[in-house]
Amino acid sequence: MALRARALYDFRSENPGEISLREHEVLSLCSEQDIEGWLEGVNSRGDRGLFPASYVQVIRAAEPPPPARYANLPAGGFEPLPPPAAFKPAAQQPPPAAAPEPFPLPPAAAAAGYPFPPAPYGGSYQPSQGSDDDWDDDWDDSSTVADEPGALGSSYPDYEAAGGAASGRYRLSTRSELSLGSRGGGGGGHPAGHPHPPGGGGGGGAKSSATVSRNLNRFSTFVKSGGEAFVLGEASGFVKDGDKLCVVLGPRGPEWQENPYPFQCSIEDPTKQTKFKGMKSYIAYKLVPSHTGQQVHRRYKHFDWLYGRLAEKFPVISVPHLPEKQATGRFEEDFISKRRKGLAWWMDHMCSHPVLAQCDAFQHFLTCPSTDEKAWKQGKRKAEKDEMVGANFFLTISVPAGPGASLDLQEVESQVDGFKAFTKKMDESALQLNHTANEFARKQVTGFKKEYQKVGHSFKCLSQAFELDQQAFSAGLNQAIAFTAEAYDAIGDLFADQPRQDLDPVMDLLALYQGHLANFPDIIHVQKGALTKVKESKRHVEEGKMELQKAEGIQERCNIISFATLAEINHFHKIRVRDFKSQMQHFLQQQILFFQKVTQKLEEALHKYDSV
């Protein structure tokens, strides 16, 4: 029987060898095995070629019925069910609720050139798949490459055998506090014993009847990020020394501990490359990290994958947004240049962040050789199996200990509220400046250039009229006026080119910071959610419904989230001052050079009249 498939979406072919599809169209498949995300087949019009595998659903022959629902129960345990006809429709009971199916991802629109709008970030991130970023060979997880030893998803038999004393690896848990009501929560970077199962273990006193309620909105960032589970003492996992994220007290308050080995990474030489014998094209960027000196090549989809992993792993860190995708004109020089500049800003912020710069996934992205597909897949799978995400992520945060290290939650709330107001005002100002700069740049490119060249043309017409006079003594004047006309033409060109030098870099920086400002509402929401749980636990203690030790555990874990939030806020301000100082200096320097060039043109024209 010939293999067939039904088209789920419309697809328009754009390259030789591809065929177009119409939704609900039935196709004949040459093979069910996809070739790096593509299938070959014949559409209803008789055209044969390639189309995205994710755009169709294979039509399979009817499968044999599943075994009886209760066939695995002991014999004689139940009376045999009567045939279906014996049941009346009104007496039928609804079947048990099935587990909800995972939300379907949008089809890979890479080949079609139709990007899907990105879903708003809400804790867990699903990488968008744009028109120029289809999943192909170096991302195909159907490979049989074995997971390397020590992957984050693997077990730790050495630890279990040694009773939890494996070198550099600690079992941290906050669950025991719920069951015993007397043990401190994890997250401070100190080893703890094996956790009790949720709800099991020893019992608390009579006061332990009350518990802190869970959020009704299970889709809130506080819940999806794992913040709620951590604060309520449900996090448990192994933390390696290399996974610890240290917060220290600096002159401005809590700060991320600096990267002991800072580095930078340049992004250069975007080049157009092809695959499928030229049927598919993409742009590759050369990355040169300063700490290795070894260049690697990455596509935009690689950046997109990395961003997705980091946004999911670090709920209280502002991962910079990538430059936006574009459906058409992806290979135009202006677009490639603009994207490279945006990626350069993104890379600068990644390398400047003490936590993100040292993340294993980011280091794998920077250092894995472009030609070593096996090593790339192993590192990619290791990052995707990372267990230190969600509630477990907060276990990796180590905060200052000792007397006076605990934060005043009222003061924290005041600081966070002040920062929230700051980000709102900065976002409004950034939007206004971006609009003003964009409008001014448009006027320079079109209006100013046109007006100056119109003036130049008028001077040229005057010069041509004067040339009708054949007197020798007027020749010098005619030439000087003609030179003035040329000077105004050149000034018009200078105006048109100037936004590339000064205004465009400012708008690129504003775009990057608008991404950061969009991240902070979710970060603040996590901290606010933790603070709400602390207030609720204190109320239970005052009412005699909860042991003080349990409430103190909740407050300690909220303290960890507060330390991390304030550290991220301080880092944001530190980088903001650095970036805007540098960018404003660059802007003014370019403005001065521009007007010096204009002045020079006018002075040259002026000197032409000295010899008249």
What does this entry look like structurally?
The protein is α+β, with helices and mostly antiparallel strands and 612 residues long. The longest helix has 60 residues. Among the domains are: 56 residues, Roll (SH3 type barrels); 143 residues, 2-Layer Sandwich (PX Domain), CATH 3.30.1520.10; 200 residues, Up-down Bundle (Substrate Binding Domain Of Dnak, Chain:A, Domain 2). The protein has 12 helices and 13 strands. The protein is globular. 33% of the residues are buried. Helix content is 42%, strand content 11%.
First CA to last CA: what distance? 94 Å
How many DSSP helices? 12
Rounded mean pLDDT score: 78
Percent of residues in helices comes to 40-55%
Would you tell me the structural class of the helices and strands?
alpha+beta
- Provide the gyration radius in Å: 32 Å
Organism: Haliaeetus albicilla
Main location: membrane
Domain SH3: 1-61
Membrane topology: Peripheral membrane protein
Q: In terms of topology, how is this protein built?
A:
Layout lengths: L3 E4 L18 E4 L8 E5 L5 E5 L3 E4 L97 H5 L7 E5 L2 H5 L40 H4 L2 H5 L4 E5 L4 E6 L2 E4 L8 E11 L4 E10 L6 E4 H14 L19 H20 L7 H8 L5 H12 L12 E2 L10 H58 L8 H27 L1 H40 L5 H60 L5
Parallel strand pairs: 8-13
Antiparallel strand pairs: 1-2, 1-5, 2-3, 3-4, 6-7, 8-9, 10-11, 11-12
